[in-house]
Amino acid sequence: MRKRIAIGNSAFNAHRRLLFQNQDLSTTKRAELFMTLVNNKISYGTETWVLDDLQSQKYFHSAILRLYKRLLKIPPEQAVQDDEILTAAQLPAPEELLRLARLRYIGLL
User: Does the model's pTM come out above 0.90?
Assistant: First the structure.
């Protein structure tokens, strides 16, 4: 899981200046690009993950929300509720990302 998060962070950094920090793109368009370019890198193989301990679940949740905050240009030290981040970004919650990946996998089987 940590490796997939690191790959997602590097994908975000690769496209940060041109796409994610671009003032000419709307938040909705940046969110679509995020799901295409970054989330696909993170979610590869998530359908088989078993996050049975609370520490792993919290790590995944916080890592995704940190990426969402970077997408929204919210400083890391600024305290913002998770619901506010999800609403502003118009992106699914980290738990929903895992659930969608599992449903896609079940549909494939």
Answer: no
